[in-house]
Amino acid sequence: MQPTNLSRQAKDLVAKMVGDNIDRVTSVELRSYGVVPKVYAAARAQIGFPLSMAAAMLLRERVTPSSNVLVLTGFPIMPYELVETDGPVGAAAIARSLNVAFSARPILLTEQAFLPPLWDTCRAAGLNPYGRIEDCRGVPSAVVAPFTMEASEASAMADRLLDTLKPTAVIAVERVGRNRAGLHHSGRGVSLSHLTAKLDYVFERARERGIATIGIGDLGNELGMGSLRATVEAATAYGARCLCPCESGMACDVPSDVPVVAGVSNWGAYGVGAALAYLLENDDVLHSPVIEEEMLRACAAGGAIDGPTGRPIGWVDGIATDYHVRLIAQLHDLIRYPARLYGIYQPTYEKSAELDDVLRPLGLLHGAGSSDPAPGT
Known about the structure:
By secondary structure, this protein is α/β, with parallel strands linked by helices.
């Protein structure tokens, strides 16, 4: 929900402040290893606006009712060669948000081996998963499908996919991305290319066609983080030089329109969902704490593991289930209270807007010369 009876500039300011609050919560580096603040700062400097809100505004502008949106996810964990819980849960959450917000049809792509946990997580999110787009029945549906592991096939397959589906947006959530040598790596600098579907081609082809792209990550080796490569190379142990023979580092080289940096990648997806819920005045666009817990447990039961511990439990990045559940509750508070409290603070909002010298329409978000409404209108 949004404050009403405010000037356009004041509404812009409120949307910006809501986005800042969302970003603060979702970019907390709970493990305190000193990377996320640096990478977030680089992304924020590039975008010039709260990342979650920027991504949500881009989706509001581009995604149309009943359109297709591609959601890419899947990060294998060594030595288990299993997918981690960070990624599939965020992908299912943003798929649900798009379905509720726009009746959009999310098409989730990953490795063949990682389909079961993604399938089960989508069901826990309240989506009916299907293996083919022609089989989808009804609005709360999603396609969960594999993409080729062969680089020689990936380019043509990506073009066919985009030609057929004509997606309005492509979103990557904790999706391993290729480095400047064209290879994929873990945060520990270990090569993962033999385990990965070549979804980078889908992302790159989409950008070439002017389709909106959003990359969500927490370290910098994720798809869509390419514009932050210099920062990732400087801030991480293996960003510039990995442990495999390519010696080209683990930093991703594929950029996106809006890179969303979070403390845990799932949280970045939740932040975009929360910002979208605020913009559309529909709290249900962001899933509930109950659904969050169900998704985490379903993902683990389906075959995913917690990356740091390697255990098949509903933790993410070593952080226990209950923290993620509480985070969703806090995000709901962040988008509710500006609407509930605006009345007595209206003069303050208006005065603050007069003094804010960074509020401006962003070409990336509204398009050059666009007549689309400003944030919060």
